[in-house]
Amino acid sequence: MLNYEPMKQNVYDYSFEMRRERKRKITFTLTLSLSVILGLTLFLNIFLFPVHVKSDSMESDIARNSAVFVTPLIKTPHRGDVIYLSREDNLKLSWYSVVVNKVVAFFTAQQYEPIGYTKKMSGKNSVRRVLALPGDTVYMQDYVLYIKPKGESHFLTEFEMCSKPYNIHIYSVPVEWDGLGPSSNMEEITLGKDEYFVLADNRVEAVDSRLYGAISSKRIRGKVLLEYFPFSKMRTF
Length: 237
Fold this sequence. Notes:
By secondary structure, the protein is an alpha+beta fold.
């Protein structure tokens, strides 16, 4: 009768197997994490990215501290579209600075970009509504924009020209404010090629094309699609 002795596993072999398995799990976890971060970063830069609205310039439809989703795929706006504009001072950042800003913005939910930050209004990105397109003639009376499209003979109000309804924020200001901030009236102007006239919904306080003039398509970073926070005010644009 043959006697079989149980094989004894060498403790060093066992330790090696454990180390190899642990290394495999760590490698898999790191690869998966990096793939998810890379995928989200690409998605948020190519298809859709969140923007934290820190001002009350678009009240009452988009209040201060709201959050919206912007798609960079749409950079030729229609009348009435809400768009995301790059900073007015046209600061040019190096590729390294752009990468750093994108990484920091990703991990801070678009709250902060460390390079190029300034408190000046001209150094901030902004959300505005496109109301006049290239070739349009416009003027403003009592904070309401009147528009005559290229080739037409009559002016209509912005509300008659836009297919989607929206609200503008207007209130009476003290007499001593006369001449301060954006005007409630504006003389007639005609937009040139690749010129868009943008306004804030808060017509009394916010800075827009009444002060810095028409903007070109180069400043348009994308179209606002959805306000997703606060959840009680979720809406599409």
